[in-house]
Automatic annotation (TrEMBL):
<feature type="domain" description="Ionotropic glutamate receptor C-terminal">
    <location>
        <begin position="32"/>
        <end position="354"/>
    </location>
</feature>
<feature type="signal peptide">
    <location>
        <begin position="1"/>
        <end position="21"/>
    </location>
</feature>
<keyword id="KW-0472">Membrane</keyword>
<keyword id="KW-0812">Transmembrane</keyword>
<protein>
    <submittedName>
        <fullName>Cystine-binding periplasmic protein</fullName>
    </submittedName>
</protein>
<feature type="transmembrane region" description="Helical">
    <location>
        <begin position="206"/>
        <end position="232"/>
    </location>
</feature>
<keyword id="KW-0732">Signal</keyword>
<dbReference type="InterPro" id="IPR001320">
    <property type="entry name" value="Iontro_rcpt_C"/>
</dbReference>
<dbReference type="Pfam" id="PF00497">
    <property type="entry name" value="SBP_bac_3"/>
</dbReference>
<dbReference type="InterPro" id="IPR001638">
    <property type="entry name" value="Solute-binding_3/MltF_N"/>
</dbReference>
<feature type="transmembrane region" description="Helical">
    <location>
        <begin position="183"/>
        <end position="200"/>
    </location>
</feature>
<dbReference type="GO" id="GO:0016020">
    <property type="term" value="C:membrane"/>
</dbReference>
<dbReference type="GO" id="GO:0015276">
    <property type="term" value="F:ligand-gated monoatomic ion channel activity"/>
</dbReference>
<keyword id="KW-1133">Transmembrane helix</keyword>
<feature type="domain" description="Solute-binding protein family 3/N-terminal">
    <location>
        <begin position="32"/>
        <end position="358"/>
    </location>
</feature>
<feature type="transmembrane region" description="Helical">
    <location>
        <begin position="142"/>
        <end position="162"/>
    </location>
</feature>
Length: 358
């Protein structure tokens, strides 16, 4: 009986082991996410191999590996990306997506990973020649200052002659023409800092003192005018502040933060689908200024429009880029934790330097 029971138990164990061996072991599949993106270099763009790359794309690849998910990229315009997040067709949106109050009512955002602002791009000026530089320096303002200097020289020279003709006959005596000419010459060399002739009369000394003070002020003003012309000759576009955009032909990218900004400020503009088209319009003089995200403008100006586009040293309307998620997404917390760890590492600094050089 015992032997029979042992045989039965052994056979049952063998059959059970065989049954378990025949059944495959089930493993939990990795979550598969649909990630929306759009062409917005240097944050998201395709390399020559057709693969997506850029600051935001490489950031997402790192975060995706960190939280252990599978994903696929789907290229869509910005508005369709946000709509896809709302409807659930997309799980994540990654590009140069600004965090705004209106968008926060539609989607959620991770912690911002990049801070920038709007910039203004204009057509680069041709290299200045010697003649063009002379024409820029000899301006109406400069001619007015020169006229004032000559007037002061003439008045002081006449006053010197009147004050010194009887007290200093050796220098200012003689005929009227000779005396006035000597007074003008003395006034001129005094204006330039030379003090070879000293006035004898009290009134002459007062005039000399006033002339020296005036010469210091006028020469300083003249030097400042010339220096300012030479300094801003490449930046003289007539645009020094965003409000100046009301007087020029402005172009921007449709459905963008820059378009919303111009619309709120009631600044007329023309919208195009891509930033490259906006800069091309400026380079071909079909527009005077392009307004868009400053980091993107500088990247394009340094890569595709090196000789034709210049980005002005003007930044306004600070904005932050972040990853967009569905409302109440369970991905938000693990993504934020992984993002904060990556932002604190040297790898993030290296990533920014590789694309922006800063």
């Amino acid at each position: 009986m015992i032997a029979g029971l042992l045989i039965i138990v052994g056979a049952t164990a063998c059959l059970s082991a065989s049954a378990f061996a025949d059944d495959p072991i089930e493993t939990a599949a990795l979550p598969h996410l649909v990630v929306g993106t759009k062409h917005s270099p240097p944050f998201a763009f395709r390399n020559p191999d057709g693969q997506w790359t850029g600051i935001s794309i490489e950031l997402w690849r790192h975060l995706g590996d960190e939280i252990n998910v599978e994903y696929e990229f789907r290229e869509l315009p910005l508005e369709e990306m946000l709509a896809g997040i709302e409807t659930g067709e997309l799980d994540v949106a990654v590009a140069a997506i600004s965090v705004t109050a209106d968008r926060l009512q539609r989607v959620e955002f991770c912690h911002p990973h990049f801070t920038t602002g709007l910039g203004i791009a204009v057509r680069a000026r041709d290299p200045a020649t010697n003649w063009s530089m002379v024409r820029r320096i000899v301006s109406t303002r400069l001619l007015r200052i020169a006229g004032v200097i000559l007037g002061i020289v003439a008045v002081c020279g006449l006053l010197f002659w009147i004050a010194e003709r009887k007290r200093n006959e050796g220098t200012f005596g003689g005929g009227r023409r000779q005396g006035v000419g000597m007074g003008l010459w003395w006034s001129m060399i005094l204006l330039l800092g030379h003090k070879g002739v000293f006035p004898v009369s009290t009134f002459g000394r007062v005039v000399a003192a006033c002339s020296m003070v005036a010469s210091i002020l006028l020469l300083s003003l003249l030097t400042g005018v010339i220096t300012s012309v030479l300094t801003v000759q490449q930046l003289d576009t007539g645009i020094e502040h965003p409000s100046d955009l009301r007087h020029v032909r402005t172009v921007t990218v449709e459905s963008s933060t820059s378009a919303d900004y111009l619309r709120r400020r009631r600044i007329g503009f023309r919208a195009v689908p891509k930033a490259e088209e906006a800069l091309q319009a400026v380079a071909e003089s079909r527009a005077d200024a392009a307004v868009y995200d400053e980091a993107l403008l500088r990247y394009l100006a340094n890569t595709e429009f090196v000789e034709s586009i210049h980005v002005l040293p003007v930044s306004f309307n600070t904005q932050e880029y972040a990853i967009a998620l569905q409302s109440d997404s369970t991905l938000r917390k693990p993504l934020n934790e992984a993002l904060l760890r990556f932002r604190a590492s040297d790898s993030w600094d290296e990533l920014i330097y590789r694309y922006l050089g800063e």
